[in-house]
Amino acid sequence: MVTIAVARQTLEVDSTLATFRGLLLASALSALLVASFAGVLAIRRGLKPLEDISARVDGINAAALGERLPTGSLPTELRPAVEKINELLSRIEDSFARERSFSIAISHELRTPLAGLRTLLEVASLRQRSPAEYQSVLEQAEVIVRQMGALSENLLLLSRVEAREIEINSQEVPLRDLVAECLGPYFERAQLRRVEIQNLVPTGARATTDREKLRIVVNNLVANAVEYTTSGGTVQIRSDAGRGSLLEVWDSGPPIPDEALERVFDRFFRLDSSRASSGNHFGIGLALARGLCSTLTLGLMAENLPDGSLAFRITCPSGSASATTQG
Question: Whole-model pTM above 0.70?
Fold first, then answer.
């Protein structure tokens, strides 16, 4: 047997392959550098809208809450987020506006009794007076101080309610007895205004809720009804658990304008002269009542009835304080 072996040097092939590898590596590195550079440019271009938004947001402060971020030139992916930021800015602006109005309203409400108190003291000090005259001045001053104290207490309670710092102590509450207790202090005022007050809550009506918080709510609703009902009218307090109404404070009118039915629960909101009061109400009673109802997981709404009367309903949403009627 004959074996033939053919051989050839590979130096030329190895050199060619090495050159080819070098070219491939150089091409790969060049492509990587170009791709990295293009990527950096693309990222910078893509982040440019975010940088612009960041700069615009950084320029928004309490004095420029009306500014909004533009969305027209934004990429589709960013628009939903920027729109949400604009919505947040709108809510913050509304909140600041409410607080400014609140501060102005408080200043106005306190300025009136303070001016009255100052006038009383200045007039009393102009000359020597008899003990009876001084006693009269002191009595008038005491009334003003009590009004200011009531305003301060209600404001403090309202702030605690809105901050959710109220503790709830639930118990079974006889509603008719609670209403009778609330009506007592208002009979004299109702008699002066020739307004009849009727407690129509069934004897067996009961609710499981915080008695003291509900008493404050009913007190404010009754005070509001006695003060604003037309002289010679009627105020009734009812209960209808079958309709989900824990309590209802009804008065014979006049009604509230439909567009103001919700606004009456705003702090310091004032209606026109159609439901005018003597000026002893400071405009936070209904706001406090609704805040407490919310804390008790109850609802509070105002409703104009077809006969021209008005009803404030304390309702029991599903899962809230239970109400039952016995007998």
Answer: no
Q: For domain 170-324, give the fold.
A: Heat Shock Protein 90 (3.30.565)
- The backbone region for 7, taken as left when phi is positive above 0, alpha when psi lies in -120 to 50, beta otherwise, is beta
- The dihedral sign for the CA sequence 210, 215, 221, 222: positive
* Structure confidence at residue 279 (pLDDT): 45
Reported as a single tens digit per residue, the pLDDT across 22-64 is 888 888 888 888 888 888 777 777 667 777 777 777 777 777 7
- The fold of the 79-162 domain, in CATH, is Helix Hairpins (1.10.287)
Do 170-324 and 79-162 have the same topology in CATH? no
315, 260 Cβ separation under 8 angstroms: no
Residues facing 268 on adjacent strands:
none
pLDDT band at 300 (very low <50, low <70, confident <90, very high): very high
Say how many CA atoms lie within 13 Å of 299 toward its Cβ.
Answer: 12
Edge-to-edge, what's the strand order for the sheet holding 170-174? 170-174, 206-210, 322-324
Structure confidence at residue 151 (pLDDT): 79
Kindly give the interhelix angle for 131-162 and 79-124, rounded to the nearest 10 degrees.
170
Which residue ranges make up each domain of the chain?
Answer: 79-162, 170-324
Q: Hey, what's the torsion of the CAs at 107, 113, 118, 123, to 10 degrees?
A: 150
The secondary structure of residue 197, as a DSSP letter, is: E
Peptide bond into 174 cis (omega under 30): no
- 137: Cα separation from own chain's centroid: 40
CA angle (229 as vertex; 109, 197 as ends), nearest 5: 115
Give yes or no for a contact between 197 and 226, defined as CB atoms under 8 angstroms apart: yes
Alpha-carbon span 143 to 146, nearest angstrom: 5
φ, ψ of residue 302 in degrees (nearest 5): -110, 140
